[in-house]
What we know:
The structure is a homodimer. Chain A has helices at 7-24, 29-37, 43-50, 54-66, 94-117, and strands at residues 70-75, 81-86.
Amino acid sequence: MEHDFNNKTCQFALQSIDDALYVIGGKWKLKIIIALKSGVSRFNELQRTLGISAKMLSQDLKDLELNEMVKREIHPGPPVVIDYYLTNHSKHLEDLLASLRNFGEIHRGKLKEEMAGI
Amino acid sequence: MEHDFNNKTCQFALQSIDDALYVIGGKWKLKIIIALKSGVSRFNELQRTLGISAKMLSQDLKDLELNEMVKREIHPGPPVVIDYYLTNHSKHLEDLLASLRNFGEIHRGKLKEEMAGI
């Protein structure tokens, strides 16, 4: 990779990465978004799909809601049902999700090649 | 966002995200890569640029080296000097870094607009 950054550009890049990681950093948030994108919308179903603890899922959904990535819809019952959906703002993550998946696939491919070569 | 995933595609996407986060997840790894990309190559300089503890930086550099994102070059001294560089494999992160920065900028812009509207 070339040294195509000067120090100021570097600081600006670091700031943007910070801003992004503030919203979608951590082990689960992107995975929650992928599950929602696939049509899963109930808390329990999200928990089962991801294998995440209720406490973590609840906290991360709240954070994602605060950052306007996720909206919550309450259908008064009985029984009361709560659904989670992605917002329009979350569409700005499309490129990021695609490049993350792409990198994951490339990296896994590389590991496989290396293991085949041993 | 449309429900354009079926369950199998969802599981595959989750797996790829896992693979990617295994390599570059956490608070610092992408930021270390950005600093290296900007031409910073010494341990102390990385520490100063990022404001990261020596213990964290050392651990993350080791992980990045194991995953072939970073290579270490030892120049026998005296004094012995160790430099860190990005590998060719790390170039596969270009798109990801660009979309992460882009999202960070969009999100910050949105917050600013909302604050201006209050």
